[in-house]
Every structure is written in structure tokens, then in C-alpha cells.
Design goal:
Elements (H helix, E strand, L loop, with lengths): L3 E5 L4 H12 L4 E5 H4 L3 H8 L8 E4 L2 E4 L1 H16 L1
Parallel strand pairs: 1-2
Antiparallel strand pairs: 1-3, 3-4
Amino acid sequence: MEQVTIYGRSSCGFCLRAMDLCESRNIPYTWIDMNERGLSKQDIADQIGRPVHTVPQILVGSDYVGGCDEFFAYVRQREAEVAS
């Protein structure tokens, strides 16, 4: 799988779940802590090209995937494709 980028906050349980999924599946990822970098939701929206209401916001390569639930579904689908 391509490099995953996770925009989020370290206090967010969904953000931590997304990182844990990457680590458990050996998926390469970059964690961008919005608080550490002083980023607002608008800053992230400007970078991904869509409104941001929640975190995490996750990209695979340059493709927008969505939040935690969408990312879990994306990974499951990719694993099913590989297993076929």
C-alpha cells in the first residue's frame, strides 16, 4: 500500500486507532499532529481540498480516503483484493 498520511490530534481515539491499524499491518504512514504543528481544520481542508469537520483525515498516497471508519473499510477491501 502507498504511504498513508493521517492528520489528527493525539487526544483523538479514532486517530490512535488509525495509527494502530497501520502499525499492526505494517502500512507505512506519516502522522501529522495538528496541535503540535498549529494546524486548524481549515488548514487541513486547504491541503486536502475538501471541508474538514472531524479528525482523523486520511489519505493514501494522494487519494483522500476519509476518516477512521472509511480507512478501516479501505484496508479491509484492499486485503480482500490481495487474498483473491
